[in-house]
Design a protein that fits this description.
single chain, alpha+beta, hypothetical protein yedk fold, five-stranded antiparallel beta sheet, five-stranded mixed beta barrel, SRAP, hydrolase, protease, peptidase activity, Abasic site processing protein HMCES
């Protein structure tokens, strides 16, 4: 399946990377909000035939438009799309012609291509309840043996992932703005991804495949469906669990986990005051009778909060007990000898 994507490229980079041009030249997608962590019901850029929006356009001409992730069927009667009772973020390729929600828009030629940097998938690992997230994308020449300092530069010439989808147009029963929404078609995973998850998006590899999928005027449905199959032209890397929460939207969501720089936690204001107090208020004199402990005995996590010189030993209850027992022994009367018979 595909339940989380990333599309954070700037508008101009995204349009240029898709080789998208219309009659007026290069155009940028409107209402596009870049994000490292896109979840369902978010608005994402998709490619579609311009003929869907302009009757006199050529079906082979493409346009980028923002759409809501999670297809809302045109026949849906409720006034709130969130009340849709079934999940439509993905559409299985083997049942696409059986489900009414997908069969109807597909028959109308409402095919689209979902654009993304890549998508996320989680692998369930034995022995742990914490799944490992992976970022999956087209192979990029700039990502080979890249260092942490150069990781941000790989996005300058990034090749976006192009996933096959279906869209529909829903009009609120009481009137209002039309809502364009889409679903991502899924297929069985390729061999390289099968250990991570058994399903993957139907990826259209290359401009020709993208054009044929979108050109509903010249390419009939049955012919276009032949493009829906797994691809081995894919790569991936493990990322930080920070991506598990869809509210986290930072570059760390995409950074390879071995390149993530772990930041040392900063001491709070109260901790800083405590360290200052320890540095100024701790005793200066050492108890000569108390043997010094080896520095290695001090736990590393606490050494930064303790004085290097050991504190005087406290008089514990054990010393008092020994002296009391000694005193009792000295004051005790001599034991009576047993009488001989």
């Amino acid at each position: 399946m595909c339940g989380r994507t990333s599309c954070h490229l700037p508008r101009e980079v995204l349009a240029r990377a898709c080789a998208y041009r219309d009659r007026g030249g290069l155009r940028q997608p409107e209402k596009y909000h870049p994000s490292y962590n896109q979840s369902p019901q978010s608005c994402n850029p998709v490619l579609l035939s311009r003929l869907h929006l302009e009757k006199d356009a050529d079906s082979s001409e493409q346009i980028i438009a923002p759409m809501r992730w999670g297809l809302v069927p045109s026949w849906f009667k409720e006034s709130d799309p969130s009340k849709l009772q079934f999940n439509t973020i993905n559409c299985r390729s083997d049942t696409i012609l059986e489900k009414w929600s997908f069969k109807v828009p597909l028959g109308k030629g409402r095919r689209c291509v979902v654009l993304a940097d890549g998508f996320f998938e989680w692998q369930r690992c034995h022995g742990t309840s914490q799944p490992q997230p992976y970022f999956i994308y087209f192979p990029q020449t700039e990502t080979k043996q890249v260092s942490a300092a150069d990781w941000e530069k790989v996005w300058d010439h990034w090749r976006p992932l192009t996933m096959a989808g279906i869209f529909d147009c829903w009009e609120p029963p009481e009137g209002g703005d039309l809502l364009y929404s889409y679903t991502i078609i899924t297929v069985d995973s390729c061999k390289s991804l099968h250990d991570i998850h058994h399903r993957m998006p139907a990826i259209l590899d290359g401009e020709e495949a993208v054009s044929r999928w979108l050109d509903f005027g010249d390419i009939p449905t049955q012919e276009a469906l032949k493009l829906i199959r797994p691809t081995e032209n894919i790569t991936f890397h493990a990322v930080s669990p920070i991506v598990n929460n869809s509210r986290n939207n930072s570059p760390e969501c995409l950074t390879p986990v071995h390149l993530v720089v772990k930041k040392e936690p900063k001491a709070s204001g109260s901790s800083q005051k405590m360290m200052q107090w320890l540095a100024t208020k701790s005793p200066k004199k050492e108890d000569q009778e108390t043997p010094q402990k080896d520095k290695s005995d001090t736990p590393q996590w606490s050494s930064q909060f303790l004085q290097k010189s050991p504190l005087p030993a406290k008089r514990g209850g054990a010393g008092l007990l020994v002296r009391w027992l000694k005193q009792e022994k000295e004051e005790a009367p001599a034991a009576k000898r047993p009488h001989s018979q």
